[in-house]
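Recall that a protein's primary structure is simply its ordered list of amino acids. Everything else, from secondary elements to tertiary packing, is in principle encoded there. The following example makes that idea concrete.
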Amino acid sequence: MGVCVVEGNVTRQEKLRLERVRVLYSNARFSIAGLFASALFFSLFLWHNVSESVWLAWLIAIVLINLLRLLLIETFHKRLRLQEIGPHNVVAWERRFSVGILFSSLSWGIVSLFPFQQDLLPSLLYTALILIAMSSASIFTLITSLPMGLTFLSATMLPLITRCILVAETPCYILALACLTYYIIFTQMACRLHYAIIDNINLKFENEELSLKDALTGLWNRRQLYLFVEQLQSRGERSGESFSVILMDLDRFKDYNDTRGHNAGDELLVKVAEIIVRESRDEDLAVRYGGEEFMVVLPRADLQQASRVAERIRKGVEQQTGISVSAGIAGFEHGEGFGRLTARADKALYQAKSQGRNQVVTYSTPHGLV
């Protein structure tokens, strides 16, 4: 299974959309296999019940639509494996999927309007059985997108119900009533199941966040840091994209704790965490690295951009808390491990402390500390 790219300050809504779309594409392979099987059975029925031109045109349309959908699905999974799917482009992928669903549902909905050459009631009854079985399965594969599921259900069942009513015969009225009952029941079931699935996904996110966040400050912890950096390193090796890290330490925090007490120290850490999040960019990952140490990982940022962010944080902390902070900055070099990157940032931080604290130092290879 591929990994979606989830960057620093991604909202719960963005994560939910990302997961919904991932599940949609994962289920779609089974859905298309079922649609091809249904098309095979139904084409045998149409062979003797409609003209050859109608039968052949419908079958070609079904095959082409679903082959294009299959190509879209495989492209999505390839991009997912390459970690090229994220909050920045997932909406476009959802739209493409919905277009495929629309054309697929219309290609099935139209069969109810075909000019059947044999007895009309048995033909409509057989059509109803195929559409009910197929739409029931499709509802479950589309369950993370309620609009798509209801679109498929409506596009396949409403033309059939309309055709039965227009025939204006008692048996067809009964069939229309049965199909309408199915449509209403499954619409309600789809709604309930969709919201249950969404609740489960949200609960999963909550549990994940609890395990990935620092309990005191609400910042991300080291576990999330390593997961995030692993994605950035992999993406950087493929595309040449770089990133930077800022390692920060509160100056004389031990003296502050000893003088004012641990509760005041905790309040200060929370306040500093809020400033770091506010002064960082939306895509950055803010981490409580340990004790009074914090780290910010900045995707697609060079040393100058990271330095500007670090200066904003340093000034914000000093102005709003009266406490100073020292920071060291280092940029990712292709082929190096994260341990080496943090070691260089730590050297820069040590230099900032040695030079009098309350400053930002950048480690710039091959020139070293600047």
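The beta strands are 243-250, 285-290, 293-299, 325-331, 360-364, 368-369. The domain at 222-369 is CATH 3.30.70.270 (Alpha-Beta Plaits).
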